[in-house]
Amino acid sequence: SKQNKGGLGFTDVFCHLNISESSIVSNKTSEITSSFPLYLLEDGLNITRRVNFEPNIYKKLQDITSNHKNGVPNEIQVFDYIYGILHCPLYRSTYSDLLAIDFPRIPWPTNPDEFWNISLKGEMLRKLHILDTELLDTKYNQFLGNGNNCVEKVFFENEKVWINKTQFFKNVKEVSWSFCIGGYQPAQKWLKDRKGEKLSNDDIIHYQKIVEVLSKTQEIMNTIQMKL
Fold first, then answer.
1. For site-directed labelling of 73, which of 46, 82, 173, 205 has its Cα 20 to 30 A away?
2. Cα–Cα distance, 135 to 143 (Å, whole number)
3. Which strands sit side by side in the sheet containing 168-170, from one edge to the other?
4. Rounded CA gap, 34 and 176, in Å?
5. How far apart are CA 186 and CA 155, in angstroms?
6. What residue spans of 87-170 are helical by DSSP H?
7. Is 152 left (phi over 0), alpha (psi -120 to 50) or beta?
8. Per-residue model confidence as pLDDT tens digits over 62-74
9. What is the dihedral of CA 128, 134, 139, 145, to 10 degrees?
10. Cα–Cα dist 225/8, whole Å
11. Within a 10 A sphere around the Cβ of 136, how many other Cβ atoms?
12. Residue 53 burial (CB < 10 Å; 0-12/13-18/19+)?
């Protein structure tokens, strides 16, 4: 969203594969989400797909980040660099005032190594956020207890997320429970939106993925380093 009233605890950027609703990263009607597609389709004799980067800027970035080890970055690797930058704690804290009032500006990498390192971290975040199962391991957040799987009173206590008096998800980290994306706390909102409903096996697995994604997101963010 162009404006961000959430503060540093909020992540007002997110990637998605499919069409999103208007407030995917904000719960305020004044902060409508804007989506920037990586590709555009152009009509002509044949429908063609082109990368949605300004050509001269894209070429300049490729020129300053190419090296013998990694070659020339493609559009996905550039996207991942952007995504990594937007999740860098130093970047977010340094430019917090500007990020609160306008779209972010992406800095040029200081050298190829910095670009490729941040791009790798951005790739991991991108795959997590589209629920790529390659990076997910849900066995630690097991769903335990006897009951009917009905979401009644949701609360967090001692690394357990309870959905009723007898059933809970175990080994849920505090960061997962409180982590914000835009104006939402996904680990809390997803369950509260299902109050009065019974969780299916697919629902349970999906929630385990949510918890794992939020935990790993914070871990990866803490490793992103850049020079300003």
1. 46
2. 20
3. 143-144, 168-170, 160-162, 155-157
4. 26
5. 14
6. 89-94, 96-99, 112-129
7. alpha
8. 999 999 999 999 9
9. 60
10. 17
11. 18
12. middle
Helices marked H in the chain — which ranges?
55-65, 75-86, 89-94, 96-99, 112-129, 174-178, 186-192, 201-221
d(CA 84, CA 61): 15
Tracing tokens 């794992």 back to the chain, one arrives at 212
Taking CA atoms, 87 is separated from 28, 40, 193, 204, 227, in Å, by: 21, 25, 27, 28, 14
Query: How far apart are the C-alpha atoms of 190 and 215, rounded to whole Å?
Result: 16
Write the pLDDT tens digit of every residue in 166-223.
999 999 999 999 998 877 899 999 999 999 999 999 999 999 999 999 999 999 999 9
Please give the Cα distance from 102 to 97 (Å, whole number).
Answer: 9
The tokens for 218 are 């914070």
